[in-house]
Amino acid sequence: MAKIVVDPITRIEGHLRIQAEVEGGRITDAWSSSTMFRGIEKILKGRDPRDAWYFTQRFCGVCTTVHSIASIRAVENALNIRIPLNAELIRNLIIGIQVVQDHVIHFYHLHALDWVDVVSALKADPAKTAALAASLSDWPLNSPTYFKGIQEKLKAFVAKGRLGPFANAYWGHPAYKLPPEANLMATAHYLEALDWQREVIKIHAILGSKNPHPQTFLVGGMAIPIDPNSQNALNADKIAEIGELLKRAKTFVEKVYIPDLLAVASFYKEWAGIGAGVGNYLSCGEYPLDNSGKAEKLWFPAGIILNRDLSKVYPIDQKKITESVAHSWYEGSDAGVHPYDGQTEPKYTGPKPPYDMIDTTGKYSWVKSPRYDGTSMETGPLATILVAYASGHAGAKGAVDMVLKKLGVGPEALFSTLGRTAARGIETLLVAQELSKWLDMLVANVKGGDLAVHNGEKWDPATWPREAAGFGWHNAPRGALSHWIRIKDQKIENYQAVVPSTWNASPRDGKGQRGPYEAALVGTPMADPSKPLEILRTIHSFDPCLACAVHVVDAGGGEMVQVKVV
Amino acid sequence: MGHTDKGDGTDSVERHLDLPRIFAERGISRRDFMKFCTAMSAVLALPVTLVPKIAAALEADGRPSIIWLEFQSCTGDTEALLRAANPTVGEIVLDVLSVDYSETIMAAAGHQAEEARMKTLKEQKGKYIAVVEGAIPVKDGGIYCCIAGKSALDIARDVCGNALATITVGTCASYGGIPAAAPNPTGAVGVKEAVPGATVINLPGCPVNTDNLVATVVHFLTFGKLPAVDGKGRPLFAYGKRIHDNCERRPHFDAGQYVEAWGSEAHRSGHCLYKMGCKGPETFHNCPIQRYNEKTNWPVGSGHGCAGCSEPQFWDTMTPFYKRLPNVPGFGVETTADKIGTGLAVATAAAFAAHGVVSAFRRKDEPEREKEE
Fold first, then answer.
1. What is the CATH number of domain A2-549?
2. Chain A within 8 Å of B82 (Cβ-Cβ)?
3. Assembly state and interactors (chain B) (predicted)?
4. Any chain B CB within 8 A of the CB of A54?
């Protein structure tokens, strides 16, 4: 048996370490550790709840909108604020383009190098590459000359001998299966996607000043004013620009990302039987279609799937969420308690740096172990799409069936590393196709004379009750996110976040149940334990975001004054 | 990409970079190259006559090795780099710099990633540039941020201590940033405080404006030294003026036209956001000129006030964000617009008489740590 450590896991957000045991060419057990802690929730105590979104946004600069959205929703929920329809639709546009851009970056820049051997692309025949590309899509950049140009650039770069971020990687590893032509095509698209993402995310700058970290969110609405007759507001000009960028986003997803995803997946079908993980899925639903705040008005439905059984979707009962710190570096309960009764203090028991191994029989991560009804849950695009599919969402059903048919596999293939990666593409496709409808709804509403972007009735803290509490859900690119706030005397009394990567990256709980990363790694084949390519494939399929995942749940103590379900 | 490294060190010695040739290979014309040089001289606030000098520097110099470290970060500054346009991130990574270590983008992981960093540390000792993103927690022996079993503090001492220079990207690496906000649970500090012996230039902002990062590197390549900085270690070309003084809404401030409610007519008409908590009058940064995402926009341009993110401790000194700045000389709700405008003009003149880096609005109880450049 070989014990291996992969630290740092690169091409993710944040600091993640995997320790694993390998026997007979397969992983027999695995432990997921986060090695960075900031304590932002502790920092939030005593501050103005209207500032919380700005602080929590800095949980993460990759999923740069998600904690702002969950935060303002939590405060609005606590204070019973209904936001104007325009603000809801602007939020949908911001959330949607974040999902599309983030997922494409993940596929090409964080995940692709697990499947694509860039060096092999040097051997490709550009004419055959163009023929392959043309057989998949009518994307205009697919001539032999174009691919020859890309290949020559690569050759020139390699000839310089300093490979920068491509140095010391796993090129030539036996687990790479793509023919040289597919490798060249994917490498060309790696570069195109870099340019594309920079363009389409300008929607955030138009609506919210900049990306990363757009600065436009407000408790009660949005800070971008709407006025067709002003140059300092969202006007016809800017709406037209957003419309063009949305078109560009959709075209790339339809003509490049999805065809690439299907082409790459068709060479790696054995990964439809690897990396299943815990088999329970949590999605909190997203994209309000009006400003009623009602769960049934969400475009993607919320729900839970247990034991890979797609015949039933259970509603979420937030009271069943607990967090255990049995293996996390905090004081507190091994059994797991509801977030509101959580513990606060860091309690590091790991080795003093520098160290080689972390003893995983005790506490071994800064991530806690959230559980639903005592079980490990996976969240993320696979959960989102499975819940939508099983709930009969027409778009999800069509897209899932299309992908399964093109790959020639059944729905059981979804419960895997490959399924997770495919589901991310499906979510991207559905959102990219839907985004322009929300822009149309916004235009129609403005046309009707509604220019409101903010509900200011409760802007002044003097109008607030002495105590209030609430929470906000947001189905982020990486899955179900919830923020929980308690307000007292106009200040934050307690603030907590239960984050997608906390669910997924969690260590074992008090009962010894593995978290989703850990469970998904068990059984993974390893061609060469010193080159952990296969570990990267499965871990990257979750799109880890560790800065998000680590947080303190504060012990504010006592019961919630009121809890409302969004 | 194959194992083409000759391993005999010749590669690192002969690291000549023929930028025009490489740009040509990537379909970038001489004209575009000169445009890039001109754009850089604009960011750096240099006279146009220096454009040929920038071009010459870029043509003559090799690609500097970069080790990009992430500590207590949110990766927002790496994301900002992905939005770079002049040059694009593809050009930066392939042509302009040799990004030898960056956890977010590099293909290698685990010990292969560590090896890549060690190689640069050894072969380029004293010649590479360290870029740091995120704060360094120094409390409790550095346990709050470890990579490959080493503490962030040890890695920073090693990498920044042996670098030609360290550029901190974002407010966290510069001054501790959000992890250092009260009560600073992990003892987070910026690089200069963690590694006092290192040569550090600070590029605060949340996130860093990539144009300023590229300009700092280009300045270095052009002049062979780092740009002049203010008392907070920030280059004057990017942080030498207050946001308020370059703000497109300044005329509304001077005219006494303020937004008092979100979505109001004044808000829709682009009036001054001072009363909504804008921190522009106390913040030094080139946001109004340089903007973000290829000059698409910046906070005030989209209707939200400045949060003061390029200032040390802004998390504590600029919050609550929606509360207007206190104790502005000659300013009060009862003051007429004319008086406000005059007061500001006088204050500004005084500030710039003191070489422009001392905020006239700083509260009296705060120490004035700035010194003249």
1. 1.10.645.10
2. yes
3. Heterodimer of a large and a small subunit.
4. yes
